[in-house]
Write the structure tokens for this entry.
Amino acid sequence: MPSIDLRSDTVTLPTAGMREAMARAELGDDVYGEDPTVNRLQATLAERLGFAAGLFVPTGTMSNLLGLMAHCGRGDEYIVGQQAHTYKYEGGGAAVLGSIQPQPIEGEADGSLDLGKVEAAIKEDDFHFARTRLLALENTMQGKVLPLSYLAAARELTRRRGLGLHLDGARLYNAAVKLGVDASEITRHFDSVSVCLSKGLGAPVGSVLCGSAELIGKARRLRKMVGGGMRQAGVLAAAGLYALDQQVERLAEDHANAAALGEGLRELGYPVEPVQTNMVYVQIGAQANALRESLAARGIRISASPRLRLVTHLDVKAADISHILEGFAAFRRN
Ligand SMILES: *Cc1c(COP(=O)(O)O)cnc(C)c1O
């Protein structure tokens, strides 16, 4: 029986080439700044994205936390989407560990935050209010790509109002591949960017925060504080470097597979949201649990959610799509 896991692009296993790169990695103690592979990963990604410095961290959650804390101090505020990962899915870390107040605003259907609503949420300089310091965007946002013109407008607004601009770019490269642009065309609008190596890029662990030398200096101190200083981490960084060199262009295959899956489900009569990158959202409603069990019997793993998210990745092959669609068709017949 095949085993196809559509719950997330975090489930990928390191490829043979990646494991080889990890085994060969030159190592040192990164808390002393002496791991050459970590240093190379940080410098490579920072350079490619147009920043002065980068910092390797174990998770995207930590990378975002350090980014927010490097921009905002105790009693400061950041503006963020209600559905954004930093606000909703990171344990409230910015508030708990950073004493940073989130100001969430409802997101738009295209994954953006309306800049009029953002501007209206910026608080005046008044001792009653927290100090609004930062806008945090996410790209891709639930599989949707923010247009470059929108990013330019967000940059203009934040500059005019004296705010920093952070990108949760967990899936930055999905956005870049979809737009057909160099990733730096996206990141040039931001003061800091967090990139996950462990999503579609296929590394087992790791994210990199990029920004100015000053911001990354602060983030390095904060990383130590939250327990994220790692030692011979080059064994992990090597997987990230391998992913950046070998597994970026192939994201287009994930997007094509997701498009085919979305199209097939639509033909079966399922309400499918428009597919842009590697995520397919389908309204399943109350049948979510029954569908999960039915697909599990065919070796297909999904989450049981009324708004079902199906994610394509490195370990979902084009040939798997017809098997998945057969599973959905059989469920619909019963
Ligand atoms: C996965 C993800 C993160 C970080 O997740 P970790 O599991 O902590 O690495 C951050 N933002 C978004 C949008 C994500 O999808």
